[in-house]
Design goal:
One of its GO terms (biological process) is cellular respiration. InterPro entries: ComplexI_51kDa_subunit (IPR050837), Nuo51_FMN-bd (IPR011538), Nuo51_FMN-bd_sf (IPR037225), Nuop51_4Fe4S-bd (IPR019575), Nuop51_4Fe4S-bd_sf (IPR037207). Keywords: 4Fe-4S, Flavoprotein, FMN, Iron, Iron-sulfur, Metal-binding. By secondary structure, this protein is α/β, with parallel strands linked by helices. It is 40% helix and 14% strand. The strands form four sheets. The protein has a six-stranded mixed beta sheet, with helices on both faces. A four-stranded parallel beta sheet has the order 4-3-2-5, with helices on both faces. A hairpin with a 7-residue loop joins β6 and β7. α5 packs across α6.
Length: 488
């Protein structure tokens, strides 16, 4: 089921992007100007200096310096004697991310201010805002555009709510009327993007941060945050959190404060940065700071600002396997690492989780896709899977015994739809089995023959992608010794 309700918003310390939310809920133009004050256009050199002074980096996950993007588009326009396009990526295709949707829903004018600043500096021909087809944020954005005059024509483009649709190249393709998937070859939108014009593309929070910095100036902006990462950060906290929320905090804030605010229970691990992010342990989270450098120091990543803790009453490896299967299904199918490598990785994770194969099979499958894809999707998926194998090593040892951890997968990762509503496991009636071995030939990935020629298989639920094969094994058993039974 697609979620369409924006989560609550909280703040640790001084609010900036979320200023005025408590008083006004949604900030219309009058409330926006009352809270944030006036803003005027900036010449290209001044906007570049501002972005460099505050070391503004993209907030969509990759963390690319905004000033370098802006300079590349300026130089490309001059070199090709072409106009520019400003694109706001507010698609937020990852199911667990909500921060950009919160900005569109409650502070749309802050996003539009940032886009307008960039458009003026580039003398752009148009602004295009990409939103997802779940319609979250679009009504508020449409109303905001009706309340003000933008410096150039501004349009809203709807893209499918898919993980890969939020990738920059996929968004440009969609705006150009092409399939909403990343291009098969790497290309720079700063050289040729929307309508083959030099295109400045960044996500909604980045433009909102630019608007805040333009009002405050670099010195006041840097009053919050750390020396090398000034300003605030937006985080989407969900998973096992008792109070899921989008939280604004200064960079450098202890992660523990955010987890306590959102009533996150002690658990085996926390995913930082989203499905292309990395897992960290609860012990690491206790000493981590919310910043790129602070999270990297404990093995995590800030990524798209997604925080997904899990609780001790779910199977962590089962949660991981569901996400890897989802990511494999989100492939654009354009290159070998995505088309064949990611399904192989999902299969390897399932086998390791079921106890049918050692963890080395996951490492090998991840190694086959790393650094070889046409976009970052294979790398991000491999990083997620390998990180889980490290953080949940103790659980993995329980699974390799064939007994598993004894916990059901609760579905805490924010995936569309529900977890397997009817998990099933294979049982064997030893009084009937004569060791024919047919079952192992039908589904060798799950059933193997032991030293005596009798079937051996994990006591864990049968992976969904092996369910059909296992059912066939049950049907071909001459002695009717095999059964599929509820795993409850």
């Amino acid at each position: 089921m697609m979620r369409t309700t924006v989560p609550p918003v909280a703040c640790v310390g001084e609010p900036r992007l979320t200023a005025g939310f408590a008083e006004f809920g949604r900030l219309d133009l009058l409330a926006h100007e009352d809270v944030h004050g006036p803003i005027g256009p900036m010449e290209p050199v001044n906007l570049l200096r501002l972005a460099e002074a505050i070391d503004l980096k993209g907030k969509g996950g990759a963390g690319f310096p905004f000033a370098r993007k802006l300079r590349a588009v300026l130089e490309s326009c001059e070199r090709q004697d072409l106009g520019a396009v400003v694109v706001v990526n507010a698609t937020e295709g990852e199911p667990a991310s909500w921060k950009d949707k919160v900005l569109l829903t409650r502070a749309p004018h802050l996003v539009l201010d940032g886009a307008a600043l960039a458009a003026y500096a580039l003398d752009a021909e148009e602004i295009v805002i990409g939103v997802a087809d779940d319609e979250v944020g679009r009504p508020s954005l449409t109303e905001a555009l009706s309340e003000r005059r933008m410096p150039v024509p501004t349009t809203i483009v709807t893209v499918p709510h898919r993980f890969i649709s939020g990738e920059g190249g996929a968004l440009v393709n969609g705006i150009n009327g092409l399939p909403h998937i990343p291009p098969g070859t790497k290309k720079r939108s700063s050289d040729s993007g929307v309508n083959n014009l030099p295109t400045l593309l960044s996500n909604a929070e980045t433009y909102a941060q630019l608007a805040v910095a333009a009002r405050l100036g670099p010195y006041e902006y840097a009053a919050l945050g750390t020396d090398d990462e000034p300003g605030t950060v937006l985080l989407t906290v969900s998973g096992a959190a008792g109070r899921p929320a989008v939280v604004e905090c200064a960079a450098g804030t202890p992660l523990r404060e955010i987890l306590d605010l959102c009533e996150v229970p002690d658990g085996p691990g926390i995913l930082m940065g989203g499905y292309h992010g990395k897992w960290i342990t609860s012990e690491a989270a206790a000493r981590a700071e919310v910043s790129r450098r602070g999270l990297a120091a404990v093995g995590g990543t800030l990524g798209a600002g997604i925080v997904l803790p899990i609780s001790r009453d779910t199977c962590p490896l089962g949660e991981v396997a569901q996400v890897v299967r989802y990511l494999a299904g989100e492939s654009a199918g354009q290159c070998g690492p995505c088309k064949m490598g990611l399904p192989d990785l999902a299969r390897a994770v399932d086998l390791a989780v079921s106890g049918s194969a050692p963890v080395e099979i996951v490492r090998a499958a991840a190694g086959d896709v790393k650094g070889r894809g046409a976009c970052s999707h294979p790398d991000g998926t491999a990083r997620f899977a390998l990180s889980a194998m490290e953080v949940f090593a103790d659980d993995l040892r329980l699974h390799t015994t064939g007994d598993g951890c004894g916990k059901r997968v609760k579905g805490l990762m924010g995936l569309p739809g529900a977890p397997d509503a009817n998990p099933q496991k294979l049982t064997l009636d030893w009084s009937r089995c004569d060791g024919h071995g047919l079952c192992a030939h039908v589904v060798p990935d799950f059933i193997r023959l032991d030293a005596n020629g009798y079937p051996a298989f994990p006591a864990t639920p049968v992976p969904t992608w092996l369910r059909e094969g296992t059912l066939k094994a049950v049907k071909v058993c001459p002695e009717l010794a095999l059964r599929l039974a509820s795993a409850e």
